[in-house]
Hints:
Elements: H1 2-7, H2 13-20, H3 26-44, H4 49-77
Amino acid sequence: EFCRSWLGRSEGYIRVLRYNRIDPSVETLTICSNKLGYYAARLNGSDADEHKAWAAKLINLKALCDSAIARQAEAVWRAPDRMAL
């Protein structure tokens, strides 16, 4: 359900990633990061401490997605055929 509802991917998406030992696409990471940020902001707007605690967890997960996006982007522009020196 997570793959379909949150990422817009097929049920087997994560299984394929694990089997092939590959990272998720930048598009998938971006969708996940954006949704995590959206829901974190909504939870942070609540007065309930439990909601704020969940928001902090979502913010940490968003940071992991953002870091993975940055790593993949850097790998692309640092590729020897793309380096403009």
